Amino acid sequence: MLSRLTRPQAVAVCALPVVALLATAAFAPLPFSVAQPGSTANVIGENRGTPVITVSGAPTRKTSGQLRMTTIVATGPDARIHLGDLIDNWFRADRAVMPRDAVYPTGNNVKEIEKHNMDQMRQSQGAATEAALKYLDLSADKVKVRLKLADVGGPSAGLLFTLGIIDKLDGDGSGGDLTGGRTIAGTGTIDADGKVGAVGGVALKTQAARRDGATVFLVPKDECADAKAELPKGLRLVPVTTLKGAVDSLVAMERGKGSVPSC
Predict the structure, then answer these.
(1) Domain count, the chain
(2) Are 152 and 71 contacting, i.e. CB atoms less than 8 angstroms apart?
(3) pLDDT in tens, 24-45
(4) Is 214 part of any domain?
(5) Residue 41: exposed, middle, or buried by beta-carbon count in 10 A (0-12, 13-18, 19+)?
(6) Range of the domain at 169
(7) Of 72, 89, 113, 147, which residue is 20 to 30 A from 154 by alpha carbon distance?
(8) CB contact at 8 A, 43 and 157
(9) Domain presence at residue 71
(10) Residue-wise pLDDT tens digits, 207-262
(11) Alpha helices (runs of H) in 137-223, residue ranges in sequence order
(12) pLDDT recorded at residue 79
């Protein structure tokens, strides 16, 4: 014989699956990563005692100021992220909760992902060298550029590498520095023709840049809105779409004349 449940008993019985589901969600690993501002490096200086940019086959110039590439740091691809971690970090300005596939779009394990990121870095360095030499009308057969930056992967330093090579070889084209003595930071991919591409994580990178003394941040134009979302006080955003546009903006700031775009 079946007995009829009272209303409180029925509610309690129905609530059991919901409670079980919430408990499972709280402790089960979720397909997300948590990112935060990472390190920055001055590409026209040294990193761990070694020059980031070394040029042979052409005279180089002494530079002032800094051109800092920026990074983010994310939880590893095999990290176990739970609901509590997401709740703790969701509303923090210095954290970003991102789908794991957006941070690690390829590879099945840590070694595969590291190899992919280093391959992207090497390709980015090659494109940066080609873009810089093409911009300066120099022959790659005569001028050799070596780029070395430890423990950084991916293509997002391409723009800053390119600007660093140009500053080392030619500065602003008339004896001055591209930086104008400032600490300039930024991010963006580069191709051999000087086109700048989006990278992601710019809101965190602006925080890393300001933390390390930058007052100007070069950002791919398509990511202006993201960069403005958590923009630190005292950091000026300069949108770029091409290498020429980036150089022109820096020269205009350095000389104090000419228009400089803003987000």
Answers:
(1) 1
(2) yes
(3) 444 455 677 888 999 999 999 9
(4) yes
(5) buried
(6) 38-75+110-255
(7) 89
(8) yes
(9) yes
(10) 999 999 999 999 999 999 999 988 999 999 999 999 999 999 999 999 988 889 99
(11) 158-169, 202-211
(12) 73
Q: Answer whether 84's CB lies under 8 Å from 74's CB.
A: no
Question: What is d(CA 233, CA 226) in angstroms, rounded to the nearest whole number?
Answer: 15
Tokens encoding 258: 């000419």
Which parts of the chain register pLDDT below 50?
A: 1-5, 7-27
Task: With respect to residue 7, please indicate whether it lies within any of the assigned structural domains.
Answer: no
37 vs 129: CA distance, rounded Å: 27
| CA–CA gap between residue 185 and residue 210 (Å, rounded) | 9
Could you say which DSSP state residue 57 is in?
S
**Does residue 199 sit within a domain?**
yes
44 in Cβ contact with 67 (< 8 Å): yes
Rg over alpha carbons for the chain, rounded to the nearest Å, is: 24
Residue 19 DSSP code: H
- To the question of pTM greater than 0.85 for the whole model, the response is no
Angle at 140 between CA 138 and CA 144, to 5 degrees: 105
